[in-house]
Amino acid sequence: MLLPSAFSLVAGDGNTLAFAIPALAAIGPGAVLFLLTRSPDVRTFRQDVFLIVVLGWLGIATFGALPFVVSGVLGPVDAFFESMAGFTTTGASTVEAPEDLAPSLLLWRSMMQWTGGIGIVVLFVAVAPLVGFGATQLYTAEVATPVPERLTPRIRDTAKLLAYVYVGLTLGGMVALLLAGMGPFDAVNYALATVSTGGFSTHAGSVGLFRSWAVELFLVVGMVLSGISFALYVQAVQGNLGRVLRNRELLAYLGMLAGGTLLVAASLYVFDYRDSLVLSLREALFQTASLLTGTGFSTTDWQAWDPLSRTLLLLFMAIGGMAGSTAGGLKVIRVVLLSRNGMQEAFRMVHPQAITPLRLGDRVVPEQLRTSFLGFFFVYVTSLGAGTLLMALHGLPTGPAFGSVYACLNITGTALSPVGDAAFYAGLPATAKLILTGFMLLGRLELFTVLVLLTPAFWRG
Fold first, then answer.
1. Which residues have CB under 8 Å from 335's CB, separation 6+?
2. Peptide bond into 418 cis (omega under 30)
3. Backbone torsions φ then ψ of 412, nearest 5 degrees
4. Any idea what DSSP says for residue 360?
């Protein structure tokens, strides 16, 4: 928060203290936690990791909300909603006109997303394999992807490599957007929001405001690259490019992106009677990349497209990007394994005596991993149902009730209208906003990381 505080001082937008005060307030508890845990005698157990992650995310979101409250722009609940949407890279917002916010607050929104993005990458690629929770069960089994359990012998070295890749993609995005004609301030903000697949914009019109093919193309490339597992980038830098290019999840991810773009473009051209096939492809590519990765940028009102296009985009939101990326959703690898498991069960109906191990490439998926992704899918669907009921209790019609939970659990921030509009989120009761922040956290931390804290076995363990 000291960075936007300094920026506010230079820009003269009057929010220097709105950042300086919360920054100083954060130093106190941070210093206490540091001093209490710096001893080499402090041991961390599996339960500790879950608790640290969940409480850490809640604590960061709480402090991140303070600049909005101190500046007087948002109330406490709206500020916490905005902060959680930022750090979880959901991108949902209660701010109806971002361009009316002070530049320092716009920068802070983008920084929250960027920080949350690198946080989740380091957590799931460097830290989580040690306790084997969430999407990284796919890594620890060394089956679902060719990503090893650790990229380097030490977590600190792995985190540094991932940070270098993350910063490199961010800087590359800034330069590309500047070359595309975007102003420096917008280029910085959109680069931060793109690499984190967060989706906060500096204007209510999102990317469509720029009306630039070059800007859209560079953002598509940035979103697609950010939806790829960052561990694969590290492997490529380490000289394992061939292994990376053979990655099954990567091939499935790129295949879904290409296939989805063609299907949406064809639907737009046929059912929306577009005059230009090229324009249909342009709009389809951008929105498919945006919603598959959970970024949520838009160049047009895609919610007004034909029913087939909108339905396809909704399905892409649930799929999400690759495990180990900043994207949300179920993750491509889980969808691949779920589909193969379904086909295998159908085969067993015809050949009940056949022994058919679940395979991914030339590797056999362990039964424990099969149980894991089936259990995850069940909890995912149950969470959507429970969340819809909770939102319906607030008087929301079924469509918006389901859509709001769907948008937050999949870390996209948007769904079919009116969900995704800042006015929709701003008009919700305070309790409904807090419920949605909980689903943002659930989706960002892969469900079980949060839900395990609610089990009696966790506290007895």
1. 252, 319
2. yes
3. -100, -30
4. E
